[in-house]
Design a protein that fits this description.
The chain is mainly α. The protein folds into two domains: about 100 residues, no CATH class; about 70 residues. The chain is built from seven helices and no strands. GO terms for molecular function: mRNA binding.
Length: about 200
């Protein structure tokens, strides 16, 4: 297996030495600055491998000569496409997190029910504690089944709120947010506004 890989690498290196800047197999954006396929390496947004050859020799050759407008245009066109795709993905994700009036009404009803259940539970606990403090034990004991029922009701309401929030794209403690950062990586040294001038 290693021998096959070495042979393939040697073959690619020989082929790379024969390539010129105008060869269609060459990745022009890589020669200009970088290939957009390298942008999101190691993330779930990875674009996959580039189908063209990345030659450091040709990149060095290009950097030592006058810029070729066709190369520059292709580089900026690819950047614009990636930026447009990311913006569309951000907008689509943001729409998924928007709440409808019905969603807001469900949240309001569920949280109101939860607050009522919590209040009922707290009042029963306070009442039982007060009865015990006043040594009215028989009366305090008669309230224990009501407290158990209130606690079951509270647990049911808490679960209902949790289920509702999870169904609406929330975690139990924090609303999901869409990252809107569209800044290019640090290895991008070009100004995309230059594309308009080409």
């Amino acid at each position: 297996m290693a021998a096959e890989q070495r042979k393939l690498l040697e073959q690619l290196m020989v082929e790379s030495q024969r390539l010129s800047l105008n060869d269609p197999k060459v990745c022009r954006p890589f020669c200009v600055d970088f290939c957009v396929h390298e942008l999101f390496a190691g993330t779930k947004l990875v674009l996959g491998p580039c189908g063209r050859i990345h030659s450091e020799r040709l990149r060095s050759e290009y950097s030592s000569m006058d810029k070729i407008p066709a190369f520059e245009r292709e580089f900026y066109r690819q950047l614009d496409l990636v930026i447009a795709e990311r913006r569309e993905a951000i907008e689509a994700a943001a729409k998924k997190l928007e709440l409808t009036d019905d969603d807001l009404a469900q949240i309001e009803d569920a949280t109101r029910d939860l607050v009522e259940a919590e209040t009922e539970n707290e009042l029963l606990v306070d009442e039982i504690n007060e009865l015990a403090r006043c040594r009215v034990i028989a009366r305090a004991v008669t309230q224990i089944p009501a407290l158990a029922a209130a606690q079951r009701n509270l647990t049911t309401k808490q679960q209902a709120v949790k289920t509702l929030f999870e169904g609406l794209g929330f975690s139990a403690h924090q609303k999901l947010q869409v990252c809107t950062q569209t800044t290019l990586p640090a290895n991008c040294t070009r100004d995309t506004q230059k594309f308009k001038q080409l």
